[in-house]
Specification:
Elements: H1 2-10, H2 17-28, H3 32-45, E1 50-56, E2 62-67, H4 77-80, H5 107-113, E3 116-122, E4 129-135, E5 138-145, E6 150-156, H6 163-167, H7 172-189, E7 194-199, E8 202-207, H8 213-221, H9 223-226, E9 229-236, E10 239-246, E11 251-252, E12 258-262, E13 265-266, H10 270-279, E14 289-290, E15 292-297, E16 303-304, E17 315-316, H11 319-334, H12 356-359, H13 363-382, H14 400-403, E18 422-423, E19 431-432, E20 439-442, E21 446-451, E22 454-459, H15 460-477, E23 483-493, H16 496-504, H17 506-511, E24 515-518, E25 523-530, H18 540-550, H19 556-571, H20 581-591, E26 607-611, H21 612-618
Parallel strand pairs: 1-7, 12-15
Antiparallel strand pairs: 1-2, 2-6, 3-4, 3-6, 4-5, 7-8, 9-10, 10-15, 11-14, 12-13, 16-17, 18-19, 20-21, 21-22, 22-26, 23-25, 24-25
Helix pairs in contact: 2-5, 3-7, 7-8, 7-16, 10-11, 15-19, 15-20, 16-18, 18-19
């Protein structure tokens, strides 16, 4: 008997339709955002000029997509939910030329197989609309129903019949953020469409048709961001690229505000993201990212959209050429400096700190831009063997080229073998320089100091991260931190994702010293910031933090850790930022007052020790 059962299990057989549908649904329907994507794309393919999305529990309990598109005839409603039934292609050859979002005929069938669906639709030339209800892929009700032209689809109890999949869903808040990220992309690509998004009775997004991409970007990203953006465009050999991109004066801490579209389809493309990074490589600091909205128009025969059922991945036949086209469009459109186009030095004067271009900037931004201008100036000249006559502090005229641009901010003239040093806990070897020990800055990034057994290189950014992280962590478990009231409250416009992040972390941000009030729509008014905060940078610090948290799907406890780490990272002194000797000494003192001074919150080392024995060995003295 057992042998017969084993033989039955080993036989090849055709799966039943319900099993096939549920397997297929696993590729198309990953979460509520996947359902919204498929339904909204169907609305856009149907010519909708108004799309409304309503969520309950982030779409886990129910979600509804309502449009004013051309609708589906009553007789065709059941067929619309059959697998591989579509009105968009007829043969395999049509796939390479498809101009619609959908074409596979899988989405509605997949959604209906793992949920309860109610669809009401009517075409313009029909006297009456129709309604169909489907449960687990089976039609349970079908009848005429009144409706204006268009379609309304409600999806309830997603994955009710596949409990294993249901367990892998994230929190309602995380699912809502994923939906908002998707709709932000689609609304950018369709500025002439009216968008309305609600959740639990609250309006999350209300966008009226915009006359241009600039207006739609302003609605979604805020006037402050768009004020720092410029248009770029180019055309070559049937390919075109156009869009908006931020100048180097406005950057973000991650790539969440980079949107790439191929033939109006939002795509994830590592190659095209790299093209953006390379275009800005010499214009913005490492770890910062531009805000970019890029539309690539590619002949239909040069792009394959049938790579994955979700259709977020595309395969470009001429990927290298398109990479260069996007990079070149950004470089030329925004006037970014190109590594292969450095002009010969013509005797221009060294950057003047008193020039109007620096005096009219906020102090922090002026310091950063001046430091970069000085380094660029020296690099251009010294590469050609000249003598710019620019003096680094303490470096004799004519010897700066020995050190390279920005090599030593505070050189070690004060070093003396008679300087006393003391032992302290925390530093490898038990050594920590006392207050009398000299500090100097290497490449505006590392703090260098001598200890009894050798020397130590301290990473100024990693160290300050550790200090700020520990301070913020104490603030959330204690009575909060002192708040410094801003002389002029900062009015910030947030993206939909940033609004969600602010609402989710409002209490924690308050405990950390931020005083924030709603200011209508997607705007907030920041009236106070942590008293110890140095890099407020006119609100960009808070925007960076909210960017980091906007699309975070982690549990609340991990999310709190991410909030603290994000705050510490963005508020910390940056690599390339000049420090005075008292500032360096204070930072080192604060670092070794923490309970974990040897690493930053991300696990990177804060310091490296070079023993005297190691140095003697390198110089052949051992």
């Amino acid at each position: 008997m057992k042998g017969k059962m084993a033989e039955e299990r080993g036989r090849i057989r055709v799966l039943d339709g319900a099993t096939i549908d549920r397997i297929a649904a696993g590729e198309v329907v990953e979460r509520p955002a996947s359902v919204v994507k498929e339904l909204v794309e169907n609305s856009l393919d149907a010519g909708a000029r108004q799309v409304s999305v309503t969520l309950e529990d982030g779409g886990l309990t129910s979600l509804t997509v309502d449009d004013d598109g051309h609708g589906v005839a009553f007789r065709d409603l059941p067929l619309a939910f059959e697998r591989h039934a579509t009105s968009k292609i007829t043969t395999a050859a049509d796939i390479m030329g498809v101009g619609t979002f959908g074409f596979r005929g899988e989405a509605l069938a997949s959604i209906a197989s793992v949920s309860r669906v109610r669809c009401v639709s009517r075409t313009q030339d029909s006297d009456m609309g129709g309604m169909v209800e489907i449960e687990g892929g089976e039609i349970i009700r079908r009848e005429p129903a009144p409706r204006n032209r268009g379609t309304t689809i409600t999806v309830s109890d997603l994955f009710y019949n596949t409990p294993a999949r249901r367990k892998f869903m994230k929190t309602a808040q995380a699912e809502k953020r994923a939906v908002m990220r998707l709709l932000t992309q689609l609304s950018l690509a369709h500025p002439d469409t009216r968008w309305l998004v609600k959740a639990e009775g609250e309006v999350l997004l209300d966008l009226r048709p915009a006359s241009s991409l600039v207006d739609r970007a302003r609605d979604l990203l805020g006037a402050a961001v768009v004020g720092h953006m410029a248009r770029f465009e180019t055309t070559k050999g049937g390919f075109s690229v156009d869009g908006l991109a931020s100048r180097p004066t406005w950057t973000r801490g991650n790539r969440e505000q980079q949107f790439i579209f191929v033939n109006r389809r939002p795509v994830d493309s590592p190659a095209l993201s790299q093209a953006i990074a390379q275009a800005y490589r010499e214009s913005i600091p490492a770890g910062r990212h531009a805000v970019v909205i890029a539309f690539l128009q590619v002949p239909s025969g040069e792009v394959d959209v049938n790579v994955h059922p979700a259709k977020t991945e595309v395969r470009l036949l001429l990927e290298r050429e398109i990479f260069g086209l996007l990079k070149g469009a950004l470089t030329e459109g925004l006037g970014l400096r190109r590594a292969d186009d450095l002009r010969p030095w013509t005797g221009e004067p060294a950057p003047d700190p008193e020039a109007a271009e620096y005096r009219n900037l906020p102090p922090q931004e002026a310091a950063e831009r001046l430091a970069k201008a000085q380094d660029d100036y020296l690099r251009r000249h010294f590469q050609r063997g000249g003598s710019a006559g620019f003096e680094y502090r303490g470096v004799p005229r004519g010897q700066a080229e020995l050190f390279g641009a920005g090599a030593l901010r505070n050189p070690p003239e004060a070093l003396s073998p008679d300087v006393p040093y003391g032992a302290a806990e925390g530093l490898p070897g038990g050594e920590l320089p006392l207050h009398a020990a000299p500090f100097w800055q290497l490449h505006r990034t590392y703090i260098v100091t001598q200890i009894r057994g050798g020397l130590v290189l301290i990473d100024q950014h990693n160290s300050h991260e550790r200090v700020l992280y520990n301070e913020a962590r104490k603030s959330l478990t204690g009575g909060g931190v002192p708040t410094q009231q801003l002389l002029f409250p900062a009015h910030l416009e947030l993206t939909p994702g940033q609004v969600q992040a602010w609402q989710a972390h409002a209490d924690q941000l308050k405990a950390m010293g931020f005083t924030i009030e709603p200011f209508g729509g997607h705007s907030i008014l920041v009236q106070g910031v942590p008293a110890s905060l140095k890099n407020w940078n006119e609100g960009r610090l808070l925007l960076d933090i909210l960017d980091d948290l906007a699309w975070d799907d982690k549990p609340s406890q991990e999310n709190q850790v991410d909030l603290l780490a994000s705050y510490a990272c963005h508020a910390a002194v940056r690599a390339g930022e000049p420090l005075t000797i008292p500032e360096m000494q204070n930072l080192v003192d604060q670092l070794f007052a923490t309970d974990t001074p040897l690493s930053c919150p991300h696990g990177r080392p804060t310091l490296i020790q070079f023993t005297l024995a190691e140095l003697e060995k390198r110089f052949g003295r051992a």
